[in-house]
Amino acid sequence: MFRNQYDTDVTTWSPAGRLFQVEYAMEAVKQGSAAIGLRSKTHVVLACVNKANSELSSHQKKIFKVDDHIGVAIAGLTADGRVLSRYMRSECINYNYTYESPLPVGRLVVQLADKAQVCTQRSWKRPYGVGLLVGGLDESGAHLYYNCPSGNYFEYQAFAIGSRSQAAKTYLERRFENFTNSSREDLIKDALIATRETLQGEKLRSSICTIAVVGVEEPFHILDQDTVQKLIDAFEIVGQDEPPAAEPDVATEPGAAAEEGAGAGDGAGQGAVAEPDVAPMDI
Amino acid sequence: MESNQAKPGLLCNPEASQRTLYPYVTGTSVVALKYKDGILMAADMGGSYGSTLRYKSVERMKPIGKHSLLGASGEISDFQELLRYLDELILYDNMWDDGNSLGPKEVHNYLTRVMYNRRNKFNPLWNSLVLGGVKKGQKYLGMVSMIGVNFEDNHVATGFGNHLARPILRDEWHENLTFEEGVKLLEKCMRVLLYRDRSAVNKLQISKITEEGVTISQPYSLKTFWGFSAFENPTLGAEGSW
Amino acid sequence: MTKEHANWSPYDNNGGSCVAIAGANYCVIAADTRMSTGYSILTRDYSKICKLADKAVLASSGFQADVKALQKHLAAKHLIYQHQHNKQMSCPAMAQLLSNTLYYKRFFPYYAFNVLGGLDSEGKGCVFTYDAVGSYERVGYSSQGSGSTLIIPFLDNQLKSPSPLLLPAVDAVTPLSEAEAIDLVKTVFASATERDIYTGDRLEIVVLNADGTRYEYMELRKD
């Protein structure tokens, strides 16, 4: 039942200097379906995989608009994610009320991290079980941050969290150096491919993923399903095991260049299993 | 302090009021305008205690952060308290050290919120504030009153300045004023105010804010001419009883 | 020390006039851009009109600081509404929200006189008119602010709206075309500017119709 005698509450240290409850919360992030974020100089693209809990249910919303200049993609406990995005929305509204200007992304991320940190130091609280990819734009440019339950936060060029995110990370690691000068379209394309990597051979369809964009002159918005499907078709992004079959009811662009399985095969099969003896605090 | 008891309903302790019901030491008009490269602002250095000229070296214009310049008329102590708020605000903003900073628009809005919140508590800061600044090539000039009324314009003036200086500014101001022309125009306004506003004194500062930052001039005085015969001997020709 | 001080007031009247006219498939909302205090003008170019939603436009006069606070409050509420409902608020919904917001401050009121114009769910023009503490009514046209005493009789005479006392109720929207309504608004402001010292400088007109939102401007007397 218990891993050891030091993991029954958040405020107890293990002799090795670890906080097991916090680490368990970070495990919750890995259980959730994947969320991906990447940025160029001018745009941030967020993507996520939508998994329905049962055949009979719809999937949960995993990408939230926070303000015109900020959005989040979450992995882990969606309920916690919703609470945190509501907090972020109200912070943005309050800042805007006082200064009539948008809240800088980095500052919101620190406030969010401080909120998560409190839960790691109070006996009557529980850490949030959700990882957030915060994408946004401010006067210092486009930013992508990852906030985790421990209260740590990191800035990234591109990142992926959630189940089977390692495959997407492998793809992003190979490509990230080009992202800074990517066009908006290329960024979306890379987001779609990275998303496909996490599917383990399942066919990429607009019904199982969500894409959102924020950029210069482009307020944060979630692309509608038709648009996403058209992009998938245009880029000919399909599952590696399946022949590239065009959707019969959607127009395809045969001229569009096909990304020739850049990440195919690599990440597939690698699960997101953490080595048990390494504290996952620093991811 | 009889007047303090005028509204016992509003004040819980009328004998020892902790609120500004009327100002003690006040500064008079501030005049400011946009020019080619930024904002120019002028204010004299007098601090009046009622009709007594009590202080003669009051600095009524201060830089706020990198991009803003604040000028104030009204209660000097309230202005100095406001400067402490702003100091904290700017310090906190700098501590993020993240490449973002509050520009003149943000500071102006913050000031508006402070003034309005204080009036909502029936405890106003007794000032008219002028806020100018430049950030990312954008010039900004605005005003806030004691009760939170706020607006932007190409030229603004507080108190008597709104009556005496702004008609001159409306006549002579244009978008492409050079620094020299701007200073000349401000001095013209300040001279009129000096002649006609009894609380104005002939010791003033002019400050400028551009993309490069704030510079506030040393105190100096304007050339005036008081030698009209009616000024020198106002009773000449008057047939008084004494 | 006996000294007479004018008692401090938390209010000011910054003047200005607002008009809104509802038509069958459009709504015109207009206000001048002068902002005054006492006998002096603070600025000649301050917009009293606030676009709160795609189909709801608010024009307000009175005490500028209260008006600004009210506008910001409504804008924030609308943002929250959009987050929660994934759509823009309708004009009648905004009308109710405005009423509640004003009434909430019943005992320290917003000194703001509002006209809310927009399009309802059928695309028909709608105008809501308010007092400072939140009582409101849907009408065919309305005016608020310092020049309203001059403007309302003018509109009454020109629009010959059916009496709200008629039973069964007759639709209050004006029979004018959009262009005629805009012309009427211009005339009405030019006239009010002649006699009301708080109205003038510039007229800002917002036209809402099926095509979207359009802004028009006209110079007014500056004296």
Describe the structure.
Chain A has a single domain (20-263), classed as Aminohydrolase, N-terminal nucleophile (Ntn) domain (Glutamine Phosphoribosylpyrophosphate, subunit 1, domain 1). Chain A has six helices and ten strands. Chain A has helices spanning 20-31, 78-99, 105-118, 165-175, 184-197, 225-235; strands spanning 35-39, 43-49, 63-67, 70-76, 130-138, 141-147, 153-155, 158-161, 209-215, 218-222. Chain A has a five-stranded antiparallel sheet with strand order 8-1-2-9-10. In chain A, strands 3-4-5-6-7 form a five-stranded antiparallel sheet. In chain A, β5 (130-138) and β6 (141-147) form a beta hairpin. The longest helix of chain A has 22 residues, at 78-99. Chain B is 30% helix and 28% strand. Chain C has one domain (17-219): Aminohydrolase, N-terminal nucleophile (Ntn) domain (Glutamine Phosphoribosylpyrophosphate, subunit 1, domain 1, 4-Layer Sandwich), CATH 3.60.20. Helices cover 30% and strands 32% of the residues of chain C. In chain C, the strands form three sheets. In chain C, strands 10-1-2-11-12 form a five-stranded antiparallel sheet, with helices on one face. In chain C, α3 (148-159) packs antiparallel against α4. Classes of the chains: A alpha+beta (283), B alpha+beta (242), C alpha+beta (223). Chain B binds chain C through residues 1-3, 6-7, 21-22, 112, 116, 119-120, 122, 124, 143, 145, 147-153, 162-163, and chain C through 1-5, 7-12, 14, 35, 37, 40, 42-43, 45-46, 63-65, 68-69, 108. Chain B: Its main location: cytoplasm. Chain B: Keywords: Cytoplasm, Nucleus, Proteasome.
Number of strands of chain C: 12
Please state how the strands of the largest beta sheet of chain A are arranged side by side. 8-1-2-9-10
Quaternary class? heterotrimer
CATH architecture of chain A: 4-Layer Sandwich
Q: Residue-averaged pLDDT of chain C, rounded? A: 95
CATH topology of chain C: Glutamine Phosphoribosylpyrophosphate, subunit 1, domain 1
Broad structural category of chain C: alpha+beta
Structural class of chain A: alpha+beta
Helix content of chain C: 25-40%
CATH superfamily of chain A: Aminohydrolase, N-terminal nucleophile (Ntn) domain
Number of separate strands of chain A: 10
Order of helices and strands of chain C: EEEEEEHHEEEEHHEE
Low-pLDDT stretches of chain C are: none
* Alpha-carbon distance between the two ends of chain C: 43 Å
Q: Biggest sheet of chain C: strands, sense, closure?
A: 5 strands, antiparallel
- Average the pLDDT over all residues of chain A and give the rounded result: 86
- The sequence of SSEs of chain A as H and E is HEEEEHHEEEEHHEEH
How many separate domains make up the residues of chain A?
A: 1
